[in-house]
Amino acid sequence: MAAVPLLLLLRAGGSCRRHRRLLTASSSSSCSAGGGRAAERGERPDSAGLGFSPPAHSHNDWIGPPDKHSNLRPVIFYVPPEESPLERRLREARQEAQACNQRFWARHNCAFRQEKEEFIYSRLKAKGLEMRDEKGQKATLNAEEMADFYKDFLSKNFRKHMQYNRWPTMPFLTHPLTNKS
Known about the structure:
The protein is an all-alpha fold.
């Protein structure tokens, strides 16, 4: 039941709704943020897939190692035994923001790597070269050639980056969480 107001709150702020439109093209299980149900039960979120697990007696948030897809460091949020409704809403909003960031950067980085490989392959093919040289090492392009790729990639993704950078100004971060009514 508490998730519904949070979703409405986030939709009013517009953050993840915009991100979901931008990021619905591909989805992978490695991009999901776990632990939602455990948090709803007042337990510590499952950290099995994160590669680290904080001690059960800890009373702090724990920050893990960088995720291999998004390069973001996941947070396991501490849930106090007597968490107030306002504290819960704030924690859930932070978890939702973390999940949105995770999805955005995992998909962005995946697209970046894929497009970079395609760019390198096409340039090497145009030069009549293979992906690997005689010694079996991966062939590379020089900095000038790669600058063309980086410029094109940033230009092509400019709108996504602008939308992503707008989300921290969500009204729910200041108004609804401080309003006790």
